[in-house]
Design goal:
The protein is an alpha/beta fold and 205 residues long. It has 8 helices and 8 strands; from the N terminus they run αβββαβααβαβαααββ.
Length: 205
């Protein structure tokens, strides 16, 4: 079932940029100026920590926290403590547009944008790349491969709900299947890094 869903999602991602993607399994990440860096991983995989590490290395950078921006927009619409499907869709649309604007400002000044989201599915990654098409000179996908037990423990320690734990389990399965065929699923970027431990950032001029 998971394989079928992924295949269908990939087939729908027809507008992914045609790139000669380079693939790396190492923790030294080279980031040129005016780069779009997309983080991919399950909840509690360490994406926000990764984003903060990268942004500390570049004065002109932006950490686009997709979940946080969505929550801000959702709070403006919520009624009776529950979002309707229509409100959720509107919050998603508004938050994505807001995130794009924040990213464009930094990229227009040759800065670095770190897009912090799950980015589990090919269509998710395509949406980000197309939304900023023509704004960046270099695109990098960083996949955080962390064991599910570790991410679940992190989630529990920070007080996440059981729903969040279920999301970790589901996204982990989708991610692992894609990692078995990296060149099939992780396309459209100039560079793809698969990292497991602490990273070092190398600035490229």
């Amino acid at each position: 079932m998971i394989a079928e869903i992924l295949t269908e999602n990939l087939e729908q991602a027809t507008k992914l940029p045609q790139k000669r993607t380079r693939y790396f399994i190492k923790n030294e990440i080279k980031i040129p100026n005016k780069s779009l860096v997309v983080l991919c991983g399950t909840p509690a995989a360490g994406k926000s920590t990764m984003a903060n590490i990268i942004c500390k290395e570049f004065i002109n950078s932006a950490h686009i926290e997709a979940d946080k921006i969505f929550e801000e927009e959702a709070l403006k619409l919520i009624e009776d403590e529950v979002l309707t499907i229509e409100q959720e869709d509107l919050a998603e649309k508004r938050s994505f547009e807001k995130a794009l604007k924040q990213a464009e400002v930094v990229l227009n000044s040759n800065g670095i944008v770190v897009w912090d989201d799950l980015a589990i599915f090919p269509k998710d990654r395509e949406k980000i790349l197309l939304g900023l098409e023509g704004k960046y000179d270099h695109s990098i996908l960083i996949i955080l491969e962390v064991e599910m037990v570790e991410t679940v423990l992190r989630s529990i320690r920070r007080g996440d709900s059981q729903i969040r734990t279920k999301i970790i389990q589901d996204t982990y399965e989708y991610l692992q299947l894609q990692l078995q065929r990296v060149t099939k699923y992780f396309t459209g970027f100039d560079d793809v890094y698969i990292v497991k431990d602490n990273i070092s950032i190398c600035k490229e001029q």
